[in-house]
């Protein structure tokens, strides 16, 4: 490993030992790591979207929107080759300790969601669960390296604040990108297991649940932009899964759009549902656990004139040897409970592969 990279990982190690706030990440299809190490232990709340730094925002307002302000951080970057960080860490057998809902309870949650859709004007609701697994001697850096290697086209991150906890993830989903006068987001929904090819057929249920997301995004951003362009839907691979994706783009003429866009879009029907508030109320009332930062968003705000947020998906929260894995899926009137459960099992597998 090059000396620069050794030093970079030492910096992360030091931050972990000293229990300091930090975030380290690699953007999709890149091989450049960025580390923000906050100088103090203070927990900074995001005050407005003119600030500069790394944002960590929750699903709902039960938690605070946080920022590591650029001015309070030491920032380091490095490039790397994937071979250099391939530490051949062996997959270990992981024991599931509990799930916020077991299979039967999750199937009931899906049935309740289908009933909710059938008896109200709701079109979609995304339900989820939290699975807790145990692993003695959890190694943060080795796991992070494995995540980088396994999920090259994801936003791979490790975020820590002693007052909040340690989160890691490999998100396949862009939330909001403003860069070089262009706005970009995506509608990502519909899931199937990858078997050898990305040339697959999608059932009407998946096409419909993804279309809801695309339509919601277009409706939300159309009043803001002169022209909105779309590309897709097309199939993308995320680890061992496939999703349907549509890219949504527009030219940006004002500098003052980030807050407006974030408020309008978050949480999108990819992770919440439609209509937004009804689905959110259903989730908070029925899921039976608090999502906190899962299905929130995270990323750089106003750094080098660009903002790059991702949805906090395929993520886990680590508390010593206890690892909480967060997984969910979109429910429509055509959902079949057993298949929805299987989808969460496949999504959990992706995270367990790096443990
Ligand atoms: C909610 C999650 O994923 C979201 C739901 C998807 C689906 O329902 O098919 C697909 C991608 C994500 O937008 C998750 O992975 O936990």
TrEMBL record:
It catalyses: chorismate = isochorismate. Its EC number is 5.4.4.2. Transmembrane segments: none annotated. It is an enzyme of class 5 (isomerase). Keywords: Isomerase. GO terms for molecular function: isochorismate synthase activity. It comes from the Bacteria. InterPro entries: ADC_synthase (IPR005801), Chorismate_C (IPR015890), IsoChor_synthase (IPR004561). Belongs to the isochorismate synthase family. NCBIfam families: isochor_syn. This is isochorismate synthase. The lineage of its organism: Bacteria, Pseudomonadati, Bacteroidota, Flavobacteriia, Flavobacteriales.
């Amino acid at each position: 490993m090059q000396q620069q990279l050794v030093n970079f990982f030492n910096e992360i190690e030091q931050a972990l030992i000293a229990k300091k706030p930090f975030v380290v990440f690699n953007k999709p299809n890149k091989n450049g790591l960025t580390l923000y190490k906050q100088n103090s232990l203070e927990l900074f709340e995001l005050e407005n979207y003119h600030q500069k730094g790394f944002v960590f925002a929750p699903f709902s307002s039960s938690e605070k929107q946080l920022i590591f302000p650029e001015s309070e951080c030491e920032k380091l970057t490095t490039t790397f080759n994937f071979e250099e960080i391939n530490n051949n860490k062996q997959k270990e057998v992981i024991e599931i300790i509990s799930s916020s809902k077991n299979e039967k309870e999750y199937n009931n949650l899906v049935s309740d969601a289908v009933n909710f859709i059938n008896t109200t004007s709701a079109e979609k609701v995304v339900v989820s669960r939290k699975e807790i697994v145990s692993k003695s001697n959890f190694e943060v850096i080795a796991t992070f390296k494995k995540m980088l290697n396994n999920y090259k086209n994801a936003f791979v991150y490790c975020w820590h604040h002693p007052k909040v906890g340690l989160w890691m993830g490999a998100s396949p989903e862009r939330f909001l990108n403003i860069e070089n006068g262009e706005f970009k987001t995506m509608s990502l929904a519909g899931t199937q297991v990858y078997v050898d090819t990305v040339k697959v057929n999608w059932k009407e249920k998946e096409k419909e649940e993804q279309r809801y997301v695309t339509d919601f995004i277009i409706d939300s951003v159309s009043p803001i932009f002169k022209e909105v362009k779309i590309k897709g839907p097309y199939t993308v691979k995320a680890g061992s899964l496939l999703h349907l994706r549509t890219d949504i783009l527009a030219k940006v003429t004002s500098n003052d759009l980030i807050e407006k866009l974030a408020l309008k879009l978050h949480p999108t029907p990819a992770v919440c549902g439609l209509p937004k508030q009804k689905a959110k109320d259903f989730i908070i009332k029925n899921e039976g656990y608090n999502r906190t930062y899962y299905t929130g968003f995270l990323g750089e705000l106003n750094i080098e004139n660009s903002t790059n947020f991702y949805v906090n998906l395929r993520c886990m929260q680590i508390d010593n040897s206890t690892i909480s894995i967060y997984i969910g899926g979109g429910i429509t009137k055509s959902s079949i409970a057993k298949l929805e459960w299987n989808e969460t099992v496949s999504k959990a597998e992706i995270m367990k592969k790096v443990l």
